[in-house]
Fold DUF2867 domain-containing protein.
Amino acid sequence: MQIETSQLRIVAPRSQLNFLDIQSVTLARPLTPIQTYGHLSGWMAQRFGWAFRVRDALSAPFGVRPIRGFSGRTPAAATEGEKLDFFLVEQATPEVLVLTERDRHLDVMTCIACLGGHVTITSSVVTHNGFGRLYMAVVGPAHRVIIRRSLARLKDQANT
């Protein structure tokens, strides 16, 4: 089973994006998008809490809201319009979870799409100013590596 392109949401038309990352993995057993989020955010809370504290401290003088990272909790469900850690849940279906964070510097969308054992994470960003561009120059390359490693770890866990 392949995930349909129409299920992969991005924050703006492709020509307007300043960052786009699409990564997939096939698991031995299927997970829902919220289960996938729980696995990934739990691991990131353990590994990258320090990075979120640094990010919040460095960004505060520029008027960026602190996000405080991931809580590490695994939610049972997600409801459109509520917060999931620092993200706003824009869409929550059995196959797709769409999360956003928007401020004056950038708009971020993360889409977790699951079909059978196939998981795709799409991250897209539109920057609004110089600080947003500088932020993504640092965060963008790290994000790609973190998602790649997170999906590899998820695959290892799901296959055991």
Remarks:
- Strands lie at 19-26, 83-84, 87-92, 96-102, 106-115, 118-127.
